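Field: COMPLEX_INPUT
Field: COMPONENT_COUNT = two
Field: RESIDUE_TOTAL = 1528
Field: MODE = joint
Values follow.
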Amino acid sequence: MNPTVRSRRPASPPLGFAPRYPHVREDHLDADARREAASKGLMRRDIGRKGYPPGGLNIASAEWKVMFIIVIIAVLVRMFRLPQPNSVVFDEVHFGKFASRYIKAQYFVDVHPPLAKLLITLAGFIFGYDGNFDFKDIAKPYENVPYVAMRALPALMGVATIPLAYLTLRALECRATTAVFASLFLTFENGLVTQSRHILLDSPLVFFTALTVFVWTGFCNEDKHEPFTESWWTWLILSGLSLGAVVSCKWVGLFTIATVGVGTLKQLWLLLGDLRVPPRLWMKHFLARALCLIVLPILFYMSMFGIHFLILSNSGDGDGFMSSEFQHTLSGRGMADTYADVAIGSTVTLRHVNTQGGYLHSHPHNYPGGSNQQQVTLYPHRDSNNDWRIINATSDVDPEGDIEYDQPLEYVTSGMRLKLRHISTQKYLHSHEIRPPVSDVDFQNEVSAYGMPHFVGDANDDWVVEIEKGEKRDKESGKRLRTLRTHFRLRHALTGCYLFSHKVKLPEWGYEQQEVTCNKNAVRDNSLWYIETNWHPDLPPDAPKVNYRLPGFLGKFLELQQVMWTTNAGLTDRHTYDSRPSSWPRLRRGINFWVKDHRQIYLIGNPTVWWLSTFAVLAYAAVRGFLVLRAKRGYRDFENTKVVKYDTLCGFLFVGWLLHYFPFFLMGRQLFLHHYFPALYFAVLLCAGVFDLVTANLRPRIRLQIAAVLIIVAVWNFSYLSPIAYGNPWTKSKCNSARWLKTWDFNWWVACRLVF
Amino acid sequence: MASQSQLRGRKGKVPALSGTTLQPDDDDDAHSGSSVYQRRQSSLERTLDSDKASVAVVGLLTGLAFVTRFYKINNPDQVVFDEVHFGKFASHYIQREYYFDVHPPFAKLLFGLAGWFVGFDGHFQFENIGDSYTDAHVPYVGMRALPAILGSLTVPIVYAIMKESGYSTVVAAFSAVLILFDNAHVAQSRLILLDATLIFCMSLTVYSYIRFRKYRFKEFSQEWWGWMIATGVFMACTWASKVNGILTVVCIGCAVLVDLWDLLDYRKSSMERFWNHFFARAVGLILVPLTVYLFFFWVHFAVLTNSGPGDTFMSPAFQETLRGNELLLNSQEIRYYDTVTIKHKNTKVLLHSHYERYPLKYDDGRISSQGQQVTGYGHPDSNNHWQVIPTKALPETGRARVVRHDDVVQLLHVNTQTYLLTHDVASPLMPTNQEFTTWPKDDHTRYNDTLFQLHLIDAHDGEAWKSKSGHFRLVHVPTKVSMWTYQNQLPDWAFKQQEINGNKNAAEKTATWYVDEIVDSEADPSLPDRTGDAPAKEPKSMNFFKKFGELQILMLQHNAGLTASHPYASSPINWPFLLSGISFWTNADENKQIYLIGNLIGWWACVTAIAVFIGIIGADLLARRRNIEPIPDPVRNRLWNNTGFFVLVWAVHYFPFFLMSRQLFVHHYLPSHIASALVAGSVLHYILSDDTLNYPISVRGDKMQPRARTYADLGMRGPAALLGFTFALFCLFVYIAPLTYGTPGLDGQQVNARRLLSTWTLHFAAKATDGA
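Field: COMPLEX_OUTPUT
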């Protein structure tokens, strides 16, 4: 043998020539199914009719019955006492609230994309929820909320995950026993049960992940048989849509996209090495996949946001996250047109560009320290205390602050020296070499309002305008100050510092408004201001007026993505029940969902399922590593069809597990046990794959018996921990004995606290 | 270095597997010259590649390197940037005072040595950037000369690496010039900073490893062992210079793994041969470096025997090994009925109680016991005084009255005459933790709840409890919770003092307390003797490995903790493109400044070269997938095994920074920059050489057939490209030099002109907006 011959180019058979991997034959079917099929004389013809297995849907009718029974069991397990507890549980606080916002059409911002929340809202809406409940605290009793219907949606999606798992495994050429084994394991997984019984996003996420895996497997089977047929396109398009749905539930769906991406790259790499595929055909393969697996999900994702914006048309508590332009697209936030030209004597309001702190503001309260002069802050709402008048500092200033309005208009240009007079308190915007109250550092000066009626003011009131940039469409705005269009900086004439603000709040004495300082090392973005409203008595009523330019859908979409990203990255506070990824596969600790009246709901997995799946993952990695070493020493394991079959199957699931798990190690934000669920789904399927391999050479009856034993252990384990999944009453002794690991911190005494 | 070997088709030269006899690897450049485009070497090329020419070139480069590194090395005569730290550490070595730093000691020891050699007495403290050396009579030039020498010698090493890798003199000189005229390397090696040592050792490691690889056909020969051990030693020096030297270890580790993977192939070697190689490498590249690394720490501890600013970082046991340490001098045994104050180790608050009680109901609706408040308080106060009450019979006098490890005690709050107590009631702020309160002295109904066991940390049985040094956990006997506190204030009803509660994790690391002082001991007349002037105590000894382990863990923790933002910190993505530099030093009087920034042409050439390499490799992979062979096999082997190795060095020294959340600076990229200069040289060779190369370059094995030599030929293009590039680099180098050497001063317009990229934040720039 000359080993290098094979290694030159991995052989890939021509398309439509021979199946790449062994197809479903009798020995891959369950014995019962085989006997049944044979007795009807359908066996060969059934498969042979189309000549290939079209995926997971082509199963014997007896299996449909088995699946039906499993679904019934899943419904019973997931829906058992769904109305209990009748109060708010864990993150229902958030997602229930978002449903209320959708129904009332009030704008909000959340770190998750909208699909799952829209579905929950739909369930609530159909059953007549009016959006008036506030979901304020965990354990607050529900009033007039169809919360059972809202919970039923995730519960039903949890149920639907079970047959998908069954069909996926069948499509991956596992035996029926294996598929039953995996679907029952998933059915009796306490964590998935607990999570799917409440108004939470993870159940839809897991469902769509499972759906994607199923459709993608179907597509792969088609692709092995014959590409570009009608059903090939169907499976491919379904994969794309399903991917869009996953990523529209939670961004974790990106990991599913990565999994499918790896599979696609592998297919394309193999095709590239097949010299019988001409480049033109390869490009066709490439473009079809790019279209359906990249463009289609993006369109789906964007259309979800389209619906999101369509529903949320009114202003709400999420306004503050968005830019002013965005806010003006919400009804109730509009602004009348305002004069475009800013001149000496204009009454203006100034807004800070980089933060959503609001308007330059002053009010008749003094700083408690520093100069003890009047406070200057940023205030987010409209108010007459935001009004300032622009006064020329170089000409003689009238102590009354009134301007002789009969003079010709003098526009404000770059380099002009100004004073800003706060109209309601008759003081000037002022700065001096005194440290500000909160940002007490060398390079920051305090900004205050100083002066009194009949006082001309001093040189510390003088500010120099530096125009930073105008808008391209308004050429004038680069040369002189134009409302809304010009971004400018204000330099303090004497000390050279810039009027500045940042996301730092003043304490209670400043009503928690945002701090304004004068900064000598100002970050450019935080020292930019623009004028939002402008009024001048000498301007004729027909003078040019301006308003915000409203962003289109794409602008709104991109801005919201950015806000979601920064909010998500900012979720770094510790939570009492957060955990690091390394603890998940070991099931070291759960999450306390709800405690009330001596009952508790605590998210914890089924240890049997959980630890067996982790074991399967490790076993696969170890065996695969061992086989690679053996191959290096010249053993020819990878020419064995059985090894190849199971390696392909388990390898796919392993890559899925890996990509849904390891990226979490790179995340700094708070993480919870339920982030492991998509990875768990892959791990359980992988566990089934390993089961299929281990029992491959056993007689069907023995195989069935082993599966039955494992399933019974899992069910026993489920019922053992079920009181904290359902919030059923429990006894102290049972509770204490169920604490297998001391890190599982559910406690009879948390629920049954002694009261003094 | 040869992961691709299986993919390569070989032209009928696969030898039959024959036991243990040595076979030429086919991962090597071992190819008959038939497929190489043969051309006669031009006379110019032959002249340039002769030994004499090579020596002349390297001599010239080294000379220039010394000139550029030493030019005006005495300027500025002030403390610059991190000289604040590393200068100070040198003075600590000379004074033999213990200090703590996140970096291993090798490079700092060298500075200490250099300082001692030039007669620095260690009294200057390097307090602030801008402090004058001349006024303090510090021989700083001698100390700066050390990194300058090492930085200069890096240039010939780069040349040698390229030469050993089989490139022609022109290409080797090209790589060396990229380093020679690089402003960042020059600026970094003229000051008392660790990077010059790090880079010098790292390039020596790469050089030794390449020499080692070239002996692979004479395995286990003397030279083979010699170069391998040299690799290990230099690797250890790199690692011991600076924490990020560990990346060099990782890099060599990766290369060795690839190498071993290749040896594991059944067509190449028996298992016996494989294990021989494996253990040889384990000795040369794990055991030897580890020993060298430990040795530097041994020297570090041997030099630093006196108490110094680093004491407080260390454990009490460690501190007591230092002469003149406060713990060593003032630590006292505590006896029953002593009144003490108890301090939390992490947050430095004192255990405190006062008459005010917990409110009945908290804001979240939970209910308290309404007991007396126990809080953490930061300031001295008589309410911090607690008396240690025994729970067993005591003799009148003698050693039995000393409190010991695992004793069960009660703590009596002196001012209110109540005992410290905890019970199964949730604490005010954390529902999962237990509330701490007190109970009247005379009421014995809850005696059991006032019992606490004293767990001294790392103590043996019967060890006495000491003030200052006796770190302990206070574990409640009935409920097994540990007294704990953290940075969180109680509301106004407790005067915003810190919450103290019972942590259910009794082994919690942050639940560590110590006795700050023994306030009073009226029950025991012997106190004056104990706190009086004790005779000077001799430092205790401690096992070296324990000391090393403790210091190593602390270094890792503190390194990860360096997350505070710094105005000149930058994110790694900026580095290869040289988007930002660091302001090292400014002098406002003469508008002088030192700004660490590289030579723009050189850096961009390097990053382009890496992109070109990735492009070539990618295109080649795709083409071969379609059965097209655009590159002859020997050239591809050289690209993978040699340039690929350089790219590995570059990547391993660069990408891990993306995962670090600590402060990062552009000088962390300098080791990667060296590697990218090597890549740039070999890519230049590939572009100019028309697929010719110098072959063979490895040392021939005893049983191998000699093979036909081929030579690289760049023709006139080589020297022309080199001269053109050198000229451009030199011009830009000179242009930016005022920022590198900190002299002469520049006026606003000149500074603006030198701001080649808008992201460089130079000082003293003219305001562009003023007049406009």
